[in-house]
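Re: [ENG-882] Designed sequences occasionally contain unexpected residues at chain ends

Forwarding the minimal case from QA. C-alpha cells:
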C-alpha cells in the first residue's frame, strides 16, 4: 500500500444547507451559476440558490445536457472569459458538475478545450468551483474527474485534475424529491459499479479499503431492497452519502483499479445514448464472466461478505449472477438493445471507437485488449 490522500472538498450535508453557499463563496467573487435543463426550478433548489446569492454578483448559464457536450460548454467558457467570472457554482447532477469542471479549466487555457480530453493540455489552473448536488450517482461533487462528450464525433472522454475538484459541495437530500425513478435507479447502479471498479480486482489485503467498500455495497443492496421507502429522508440521505463515498478517492487509495466497464460503457453512451449507469449494467456482468479467472478471489470475497453466499467451487460465478440479479431487481437491463438490432455492426462500431480512443489495454492488468473487449461485447450485445 502506498498513497498520498486528501479530499479537499468541504461537504455541507443536510436539509437547508443550500443557504451555506452564502458564506462558502467569497463575497467579492463574480459567480456563474451553471445548471441543466431546468429541473432545479421545479424543486425549489434554484430559488434557494438565488436567495443564498442575494449579496453576490452573479450570472447564470443553463442548458447543460445529460452527458455534457463540448459544443454547449464552450458557450459557457466564452461567458466566463467575457465577464471575468472567478467562481463557478454547478447546480445539478454529474453532467452539470462535470461540465462546470471543463468550463473552469478551459477558461484558464488559451487553446481549444478538447485538448484537455486529448491529454494535450495538462490542467493545473482552473476557476474555483462549488457544487450543489441534485442527483446522487457519480461522486463528481467531491472528486477531480470529469467526462465530456464531443457530439460531432461521438467521442466521450474523461479528464482528471485536482484543480477542478470542487471547493465545497452541498448535499441536501431534499433536492432529490423531484428525481424521476429512472435517475434514482441510475444512482444506485452507478455507485455500485464505482465501488466494484476499485474493489473487484485482485486481493491486496487492504482491510480498510475492502471493508469500507463492502459496507458501501451492502448499503446499496439494502437501499434497493427498501426501494419502497425511497420517499423518506433517511433513504435519500443514505443514498446521497453512499454514492458520494463510493467515488471520493478513499476506497481507491493505494489499491488496484479496473475502470474497463466504464471505458467500454462510455462508448455505448456516445454511440447509442444509453444512460451512463445503464451502460455499466450492460457491460459489467459480461466483463466479469470474461475476466473470471483473474477476478476469482475478489468475486468470492464479494459473494461471501456482501451477498452472504455459501462457499463452493462456483462461488465466483454465483456472485456474478447475484450482481446481475441485483440489476434485474431494479428493472435495469444487462444486454444492449439500443443499437437497433444489427449486432455485428454494433460490436464493430464500439471496437472502432475504443481503438480510436486508445482504449486498447484496459483493466487492472491492462489485459483487456480489443480482443477481450470484442468477446465482452459479443456477450453483452443482444
Ligand atoms: O438537466 P436537468 O434539468 O437538471 O435534469 C437532469 C437530467 O435530465 C435530471 N435531474 C438531475 N437532478 C434532478 C433531475 N431531475 C429532477 N430532479 C432532480 N433533483 O437527471 C438527468 C440526468 O442528469 P445527469 O447529471 O446526466 O446524471 P448523472 O448524475 O448520472 O451524471 C451522468 C454523467 O456523469 C458522468 C457520466 O459519464 C455522465 O456524463 N460521470 C462522471 C463521473 C465523475 N465525474 O467522477 C464518474 C461517473 O462514472 C460518470 O462517468
Ligand atoms: Zn460511473
Amino acid at each position: 500500500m502506498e498513497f498520498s490522500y486528501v479530499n479537499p472538498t468541504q461537504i455541507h450535508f443536510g436539509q437547508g444547507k443550500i443557504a451555506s453557499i452564502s458564506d462558502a463563496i467569497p463575497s467579492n467573487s463574480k459567480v456563474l451559476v451553471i445548471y441543466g435543463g431546468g429541473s432545479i426550478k421545479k424543486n425549489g433548489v434554484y430559488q434557494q440558490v438565488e436567495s443564498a446569492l442575494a449579496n453576490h454578483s452573479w450570472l447564470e448559464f443553463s442548458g447543460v445536457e445529460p452527458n455534457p457536450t463540448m459544443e454547449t460548454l464552450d458557450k459557457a467558457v466564452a461567458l466566463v472569459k467575457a465577464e471575468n467570472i472567478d467562481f463557478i457554482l454547478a447546480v445539478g447532477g454529474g453532467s452539470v458538475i462535470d461540465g462546470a469542471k471543463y468550463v473552469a479549466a478551459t477558461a484558464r487555457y488559451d487553446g481549444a478545450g478538447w485538448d484537455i480530453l486529448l491529454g494535450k493540455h495538462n490542467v493545473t489552473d482552473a476557476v474555483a468551483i462549488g457544487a450543489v448536488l441534485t442527483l446522487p450517482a457519480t461522486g463528481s461533487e467531491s472528486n477531480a474527474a470529469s467526462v465530456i462528450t464531443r457530439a460531432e464525433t461521438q467521442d466521450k472522454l474523461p479528464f482528471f485534475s485536482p484543480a477542478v475538484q470542487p471547493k465545497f459541495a452541498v448535499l441536501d437530500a431534499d433536492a432529490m424529491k423531484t428525481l424521476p425513478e429512472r435517475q434514482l435507479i441510475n444512482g444506485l447502479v452507478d455507485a455500485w459499479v464505482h465501488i466494484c471498479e476499485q474493489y473487484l480486482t485482485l486481493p491486496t489485503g487492504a482491510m480498510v479499503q475492502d471493508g469500507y467498500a463492502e459496507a458501501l455495497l451492502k448499503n446499496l443492496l439494502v437501499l434497493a431492497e427498501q426501494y419502497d421507502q425511497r420517499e423518506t429522508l433517511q433513504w435519500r440521505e443514505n443514498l446521497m452519502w453512499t454514492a458520494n463515498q463510493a467515488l471520493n478517492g478513499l476506497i481507491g487509495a493505494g489499491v488496484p483499479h479496473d475502470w474497463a466497464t466504464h471505458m467500454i460503457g462510455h462508448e455505448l453512451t456516445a454511440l447509442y445514448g444509453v444512460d451512463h449507469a445503464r451502460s455499466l449494467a450492460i457491460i459489467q456482468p459480461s466483463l466479469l464472466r470474461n475476466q473470471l479467472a483473474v477476478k476469482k478471489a475478489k468475486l468470492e470475497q464479494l459473494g461471501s461478505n456482501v451477498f452472504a453466499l455459501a462457499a463452493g467451487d462456483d462461488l465466483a460465478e454465483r456472485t456474478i449472477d447475484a450482481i446481475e440479479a441485483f440489476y434485474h431487481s431494479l428493472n435495469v437491463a444487462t444486454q444492449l438493445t439500443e443499437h437497433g438490432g444489427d449486432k455485428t455492426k454494433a460490436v464493430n462500431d464500439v471496437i472502432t471507437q475504443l481503438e480510436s480512443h486508445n482504449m486498447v489495454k484496459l483493466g487492472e492488468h491492462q489485459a483487456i485488449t480489443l480482443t477481450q473487449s470484442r468477446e465482452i461485447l459479443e456477450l453483452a450485445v443482444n
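QA comment: On inspection the terminal residues look reasonable. Residues 181-381 form a domain with the Dehydroquinate synthase-like, alpha domain fold (CATH 1.20.1090.10). Proposing we downgrade this to a documentation issue.
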